[in-house]
Amino acid sequence: MSLELPHKKDLTTNAKLPGQLTENFEAIEADDARDDKKLADEVILRKKGDDDLSKRCFDLEESRVTYKKLKEVDSYWRDRLKRVALGTDEETIEIVLRKILVDEGIIKSDVNSPRSVTRTNSN
Questions:
Q1: Which domain of life is it from (predicted)?
Q2: Residue ranges of the domains in the chain?
Q3: Quick one: average pLDDT of 83-92?
Q4: Distance CA 9, CA 7 (A)
Q5: What pLDDT does residue 40 have?
Q6: CA within 20 to 30 Å of 60's CA: 3, 33, 44, 101, which one?
Q7: CA 78 to chain centre
Q8: Which residues sit opposite 107 in a β-bridge?
Q9: Would you call 90 helix, strand, or coil by DSSP?
Q10: Distant-in-sequence, close-in-space partners of 5: CB < 8 Å, separation ≥ 6
Q11: 17 and 7 in contact (C-beta within 8 Å)?
Q12: Which band of pLDDT confidence, cut at 50, 70 and 90, is reported for residue 84?
């Protein structure tokens, strides 16, 4: 069974065929161009979505790091507060003792450096 094309028998159809083919190809090309534009737009949207997701992941990581640092600082100060409350915090004891010794005149505090002290001569 062979397929007979109508333009072989009908000369009027034969004359219209090139125009019809041109129209068909132009329609196909226009359709293809629309599809390409839709695809390009979708790629742009997906890239934007990927960028947004990457930014959110980065922000979450930054938040996690910040949270971890805050937990470390919180832990340090809680431990220090416990030591101060128990009277075992060396830094606080040193500051209080230095103040008492300066107030009693046993040592002199250097104004420029609160940690450096000089002994006074007590007879």
A1: Bacteria
A2: 7-86, 89-123
A3: 88
A4: 5
A5: 95
A6: 44
A7: 30
A8: 119
A9: helix
A10: none
A11: yes
A12: confident
Please name the residue ranges forming H helices in 1-123: 6-9, 11-86, 90-103
Q: Are 106 and 122 in contact (CB under 8 A)?
A: yes
What b/e readout covers 17-33, taking b as 16+ CB neighbours within 10 angstroms? Answer: eeeeeeeeeeeeeeeee
Q: How far is Cα 92 from Cα 83, in angstroms, rounded to an integer?
A: 9
* C-alpha distances in Å from residue 52, one per residue of 33, 47, 49, 55, 56: 28, 8, 5, 5, 6
pLDDT of residue 119: 53
45-49 long-range Cβ contacts below 8 angstroms, 24+ apart: none
Rounded-to-integer distance, Cα 115 and Cα 89, Å: 16
Residue 98 pLDDT more than 50?
Answer: yes
